Automatic annotation (TrEMBL):
InterPro entries for this protein: Peptidase_S54_rhomboid_dom, Rhomboid-like_sf, Rhomboid_protease_S54
MF terms in GO: serine-type endopeptidase activity
Organism (species): Nepenthes gracilis
Gene3D superfamilies to which the protein is assigned, alphabetical: Rhomboid-like
Protein name per the record: Peptidase S54 rhomboid domain-containing protein
Family the UniProt entry places it in: Belongs to the peptidase S54 family.
Pfam families per UniProt: Rhomboid
Record keywords, A-Z: Membrane, Transmembrane, Transmembrane helix
Length: 271
């Protein structure tokens, strides 16, 4: 009787976890799509920054506006996209890699990776390019970075076919992102910074999946699936706080590039 109950619980719990993961991933994708629809529904004819919608005008990364106090522009670009193809790319990557990262790291750590990837990507862009840009694909590239570390650390526990398929998708996503960057204010620097953040954060939080002899015997005799070990939430939160402190310190010790228009605006505001 106890063995039957154990089998039943071990079969139900993973399904419940996957349902929760897909629910959160669907919410994130829906937010991105909703914001993109709002962008299309609120056009602006004239813009000094080549940003032609209300969300882009008030939320895109504009360096000199960040310097004069609009700090939220280091966060809001992670929800902004440049057209339907850009948001479609983000949603495709999120749906492709999100469930795998949730399954490996756990939902809490997945969410931290997503948020940290978006912010660090925007900060990377802030420190490297003066152009007004959006970084909606940054968080999903952080997810790709975390997945790369997970599959490297647990390659013996992951199907070779799944790894190869997702690796090909990662290459396609990077190629499409570079291509789309030529047709709109898509932030390549944000994608690069977010990817490296996902890799580093994933390295410090990645759980190692191991199967002892008892588990192996149970799987062979009773066909019970391996219970995965997620990342430690406290460790993930501590790593998130550390990364946050490092990113904040960069704002004090580095000077971002400014375009000519941005410099003129700063001078006018200081008079």
């Amino acid at each position: 009787m106890e063995s039957d109950n154990y089998k039943k619980n071990s079969a139900v719990t993973p399904l419940d976890d996957e349902s929760s993961d897909l629910y959160i991933i669907s919410i994130l994708a829906s937010i991105n799509i909703a914001v993109s629809l709002f962008e299309m529904a609120s056009p602006i004819k004239n813009s000094d920054y080549n940003l032609y919608s209300l969300p882009l005008m008030y939320g895109a990364k504009v360096n000199h506006l960040i310097l004069v106090g609009e700090w939220w522009r280091l966060v809001t670009p992670m929800f902004l996209h440049s057209g339907l193809l850009h948001v479609a790319l983000s949603c495709w990557v999120l749906i492709s890699f999100g469930p795998q990262v949730c399954k490996g790291y756990g939902l809490f750590t997945f969410f931290l990776i997503y948020i940290l990837g978006g912010i660090s990507g925007n900060l990377t862009s802030f420190l490297h390019t003066p152009e007004a840009t959006v970084g909606g694909s940054g968080p999903v590239f952080a997810i790709i970075g975390a997945w790369l570390i997970y599959q490297m650390q647990n390659k013996d526990m992951i199907s070779k076919e799944i790894s190869e398929e997702l690796f090909q998708k990662a290459i396609i996503a990077m190629a499409l992102s570079c291509l789309l960057a030529n047709f709109g204010p898509i932030d390549t620097w944000a994608n690069v910074g977010a990817t490296f953040t996902g890799i580093i954060f994933g390295f410090f939080t990645c759980p190692m999946q191991r199967m002892d002899n008892a588990s192996s015997k149970t799987m062979q005799e009773e066909g019970i699936a391996l219970v995965r070990q997620h990342a430690n939430p406290c460790k993930s939160l501590a790593a998130f706080a550390f990364f946050g402190l490092v990113l904040c310190s960069l704002l004090y010790f580095t000077e971002p590039p400014l375009n000519t228009m941005g410099l003129e605006d700063l001078l006018k505001m200081s008079e």
